[in-house]
Structure formats: C-alpha cells, structure tokens
Amino acid sequence: MLVRTYSSLWMMAGFVFLIYMGHLYIWAMVVVIQIFMAKELFNLLRKANEDRQLPGFRMLNWHFFFTAMLFTYGRFLSRQLVNTVTSDKLLYKLVNGLIKYQMFICYFLYIAGFVWFIVTLKKKAYKYQFSQYAWTHMILLMVFAQSSFTVANIYDGIFWFLLPASLIAINDVAAYFFGFFFGRTPLIKLSPKKTWEGFIGASVTTMLSAFVLANFMGHFQWLTCPRKDLSTGWLHCDPGPMFTPESYNLPGWMPQWFPWREVAIMPVQWHALALGLFASIIAPFGGFFASGFKRAFKFKDFGDSIPGHGGFTDRMDCQMVMAVFAYIYYQSFVMIQDLSVETILEQVIGFDVFIRQFQFTCMINTILFNADTKESHCRGAA
C-alpha cells in the first residue's frame, strides 16, 4: 500500500508538471504511454509462449507499431507543422510534401512488414505465427484506435483532455474508499472486490466533481484555448460562450437564510455532467473488460512498469474508453463549426453551381411551356 501511494504521488506530480509544460509535452507523454502499453502486451504473448519464440518477431512487432504510429500521427503532426513553418517557404513545401505522400509511405512500410512476415513463415509453426500476426494487429488497434483520440482532445484544449482523465481517477479512488468502508453487495463476478455501494458512491462523487472541476478549469486560458501549431508559448484567446458564466435565478422555494438568489454557471459545466455520467457508468466497464481478459489468460497484471499499480495497461483501460467518448462528445455537441477560407469557397462554389442549374432548368421549362415570359421569369429566378 505504501509503495502504491508513493507511486501515485510521483505520477500526480509528473502529470501536473506536464500540464504546465503544455500541449506538445502532454502529447509526448501519450506516445510514451503507448510504447509502454505495446511493450507490455507484446511481452505478455511471449511469456505465454516462451518455448516457441521466433527469431526477429519482436523486431517485426515494433516495425508494425511505428508504422501505425506514423499513420496515426503523421497527418495530424504535418497539419500542425504547416501552421508552425508558414514563414519558411522551403520548410512549408517540405511539410506539404510529407502530407501528400504520408499515406503512401505508411502503406509501403506496412507492405514491407507483410512481406517480412511471409518470408519468415516456418513449417510446423504456421498457426502460431499467424496467431501472433493477428495479436499484433489487435494490440495496435487497441493502443492507437482508442488512445490516439487523446491527442485530438489535447489540441482542442487541454481542458478536454484533463477533465475526462481527472474524472476517471476520481471515480477510481472514490469507488475504492466507498467500497472499503461501505461495500457489502458484489457488483460483478469479473471483479469480486467491486461493490454496488462503491459504484454508486463513486458515481455521485464523480458527477459532483465534474460540475465543480469544470468551473475551476474553465477560468484558465492555458487549459481552455485550442492550439493550432506545435509551439509551446503561452496562449491567449477569447473564452467563447462555452466558458462564459451565465446567471441563473434560484427558485422561490429556496429558504430565506440562503445567501444567494442567483448563481453563475458556465455552459461547459452542463457538458461536464455528461462526461461525469459516462465516467461513472460506462468507463468502468473498460476495467471489467481488462479483468476478464486477465482472468482468461490467468495473470494478475499486464506488467510491472509502475510499482504497486501493475503496468501502464492496467492504469489506462478506463482512460482509453473515456478518451474516445470525450472526443466524440466534443465533436458532436461542443465544437463550433470552423469556417476556414477553403470551406467558405467550397460553399460559395457549390451555391453558384446550384444557381446555374436552377437557371438552366428555368429556361428549359419556359421554352417548353411559356415562351413569352421566358426572360422575366428566369431573371427573377436568378
């Protein structure tokens, strides 16, 4: 317990430091976590089949890993670089070239790994090798397809990364304490120590924390401002309506001794309740899934990278589920449509084409049915 507490304190201190350093450093942290998660999962398979290890397969695993990383982050990184190097024409052309050929490069690297795998196939080991090939792709899907949404959340504003991650941590801690002191009724067979009392207590705590934390974090531009490039300087932006407090009159049945007659609430606090609800009800099932997986393969933890906590995968199971939801929720209900010059031009061109099509149809109809009013009718339509 003491080791676990020390590890938690060190992780919290490091996390706060990276939040202070900014978007690029948090992104680097996510990449490091992904590398450790992949390492733990790759090692897990090798430990289960030590007597049948194949020479060079570890290198092939990492070849596919870094190819997936280049595919996942390449285009996003290039877009951020474009905004960073606009003043340098040579670098700007280079980055645009990377954007243009990034998918081809990734495809070529993947095909190279595919050929490498086929060449290394050995008689009497086909089934095992193909199972490893499939396992490698499942690892990459789990590590990148979910946790990579975290990077998009970071650059939309650290708020959209920090709040969901904090809610998962709060829910985990609250579930432990409520379960320890009040737990009586088992929640799910996959995790015998989980109780309904802990689940309900953690849910209430997480919802309240979401509402309060959203208000606290919403006052810091460093957390709320999106970043469009790879710079690390301080940010200044218009907080926008999402982080602008609105006054709400309290109902008349409030007691006279209550000191306030109205409260100021940021609109983002209502959205935070939705995040808190998901973190309380759905995200824990990521942990239950991991528990079931570990029971199926009969091991306690995914690794031992974090003293007292197991591996990074053990800590990130719920976080990955939460990161995907936070991204989808932000894109669906929070994000304001960004009308870039390109988007506006596309809409103008599309509208112009529609007008021309309408005029042409009008002319044809007039010729066929009413030649005398052709000119006035079609001019009016234009």
TrEMBL record:
<feature type="transmembrane region" description="Helical">
    <location>
        <begin position="59"/>
        <end position="78"/>
    </location>
</feature>
<dbReference type="GO" id="GO:0016020">
    <property type="term" value="C:membrane"/>
</dbReference>
<feature type="transmembrane region" description="Helical">
    <location>
        <begin position="133"/>
        <end position="152"/>
    </location>
</feature>
<comment type="function">
    <text>May be involved in the synthesis of minor phospholipids and in modulation of IP3-mediated signal transduction.</text>
</comment>
<dbReference type="GO" id="GO:0016024">
    <property type="term" value="P:CDP-diacylglycerol biosynthetic process"/>
</dbReference>
<keyword id="KW-0812">Transmembrane</keyword>
<keyword id="KW-0444">Lipid biosynthesis</keyword>
<feature type="transmembrane region" description="Helical">
    <location>
        <begin position="12"/>
        <end position="38"/>
    </location>
</feature>
<keyword id="KW-0808">Transferase</keyword>
<dbReference type="Pfam" id="PF01148">
    <property type="entry name" value="CTP_transf_1"/>
</dbReference>
<comment type="pathway">
    <text>Phospholipid metabolism; CDP-diacylglycerol biosynthesis; CDP-diacylglycerol from sn-glycerol 3-phosphate: step 3/3.</text>
</comment>
<keyword id="KW-1208">Phospholipid metabolism</keyword>
<dbReference type="GO" id="GO:0004605">
    <property type="term" value="F:phosphatidate cytidylyltransferase activity"/>
</dbReference>
<keyword id="KW-0594">Phospholipid biosynthesis</keyword>
<keyword id="KW-0472">Membrane</keyword>
<feature type="transmembrane region" description="Helical">
    <location>
        <begin position="268"/>
        <end position="290"/>
    </location>
</feature>
<dbReference type="InterPro" id="IPR000374">
    <property type="entry name" value="PC_trans"/>
</dbReference>
<keyword id="KW-0443">Lipid metabolism</keyword>
<dbReference type="InterPro" id="IPR016720">
    <property type="entry name" value="PC_Trfase_euk"/>
</dbReference>
<feature type="transmembrane region" description="Helical">
    <location>
        <begin position="195"/>
        <end position="217"/>
    </location>
</feature>
<comment type="similarity">
    <text>Belongs to the CDS family.</text>
</comment>
<feature type="transmembrane region" description="Helical">
    <location>
        <begin position="158"/>
        <end position="183"/>
    </location>
</feature>
<feature type="transmembrane region" description="Helical">
    <location>
        <begin position="98"/>
        <end position="121"/>
    </location>
</feature>
<keyword id="KW-0548">Nucleotidyltransferase</keyword>
<protein>
    <recommendedName>
        <fullName>Phosphatidate cytidylyltransferase</fullName>
        <ecNumber>2.7.7.41</ecNumber>
    </recommendedName>
</protein>
<comment type="pathway">
    <text>Lipid metabolism.</text>
</comment>
<keyword id="KW-1133">Transmembrane helix</keyword>
